[in-house]
Amino acid sequence: MTPDVVENERLTVGVLGAGTMGVGIASVMARAGHPTIVRDVDDDRVAGGLSGVREFLDRSVELKKLDARTRDTALAGLSGTTRLEDLSGCDVVVEAIFEDTALKAETFGALDEIVRPDTLLHTNTSTLSATAIAAGSRHPERVVGTHYCNPAPLMKLVEVVKARQTGDDAYRRTLTFLEGLGKTTVTTADVPGFIVNRFLIPFENECIRALAAGLGTVESIDTAVTKGLRYPMGTFRLLDIVGLDIHKAVATSLYDQLRDPRFFPPPLVDQMIAAGDLGRKTGRGFYTYERAGLFGS
Predict the structure, then answer these.
(1) What is the greatest pairwise CA distance in the chain?
(2) Any catalytic annotation for residue 126?
(3) Which of 5, 30, 65, 280 could be bridged to 74 by S-S, CB 3.0 to 4.6 A?
(4) Run of H or E including 15
(5) Gyration radius of the chain over CA positions
(6) What digits encode the pLDDT tens for the residues 208-258?
(7) What is the model's pTM?
(8) Which of 34, 129, 137, 147 is catalytic?
(9) 263 and 226 fall within a common domain
(10) Which of 188, 207, 230 is the last residue of a domain?
(11) 279: left (phi over 0), alpha (psi -120 to 50) or beta
């Protein structure tokens, strides 16, 4: 049996995908002191992903949430690549690529030829079946669903999904690894949306519909959510961090699987995407930001 991952043990972590979730997850790994390799399909995307991690770490230092020495150590262990083969030495690989079951399953099949037999394989899918994704691997018993709530560096929760094939050893080691990152875990059934997005997406859509119907302003609805419901962040603040394009993709995927109209994104989402108002990363969403970027202010 493979030894447990223990807190503060330095592991080499590969993150597949340099988009919003990939950058967030890579930031978590680097901040925790794990040498982190960000992989995407071309140099520009890799460079953008690495820049996003640096931006988050620098911003954390500015806000005095991270000391400069920890930031420098994290950056020293951060690297990028376009070659899947460069993940051969990884102890953990977290897949955070486009939400497409076939593409994710194919990726895990390719990893079979590259990584060690004891490497943990995690899929960060937020809507798709971990069982279907794991089926792409010849060793599906080591594939575990790990849905990092967005934004990954700021949110404590990770939903852990046992695929039908997931082995007890991989599941147990995954929990230990995530707890070593300072995360809180909940185990959920392998169903569309798991726990969080089953609740969150319909609520976000209803807030958007309320705004479009004139029930309140962006600010008043966010105030109602934070002061009346005691949520730590307003719905529109959160949507701007997540990105309207990401929200639409997740909502549409859940609607396609569940055919529940509560999950269908309202027309205002399409209008904002067409205008390029995606949120913080473009400098404008429901709110306007002084600088564009995943962690813009």
Answers:
(1) 59
(2) yes
(3) 30
(4) strand 13-16
(5) 19
(6) 999 999 999 999 999 999 999 999 999 999 999 999 999 999 999 999 999
(7) 0.91
(8) 147
(9) yes
(10) 188
(11) left
In a domain, 264, yes or no: yes
Hey, how many other C-beta atoms are within 10 angstroms of the C-beta on 72?
12
109 and 203 in a single domain? The answer is no
Same domain, 61 and 177: yes
Q: Which residues contact 139 (CB under 8 A, 6 or more apart)?
A: 112, 117
Same domain? 121 vs 180: yes
Quick check: is 220 catalytic?
A: no
197 is catalytic: yes
Query: Over the stretch 167-200, which tens digit does the pLDDT of each residue have?
Result: 999 999 999 999 999 999 999 999 999 999 999 9
Q: Fill in the amino acid letter for 188.
A: T
Domain assignment present for residue 5? The answer is: no
Candidates 278, 138, 286, 272; CA nearest to 220 is 286
Q: Is 137 a catalytic residue?
A: no
For 281: left if phi > 0, alpha if psi spans -120 to 50, otherwise beta; the answer is alpha
Looking at 95, 99, 159, 204, which residue is catalytic? 159
- Which pair of structure tokens corresponds to residue 276? 């390029």
Catalytic residue among 126, 129, 205, 253: 126
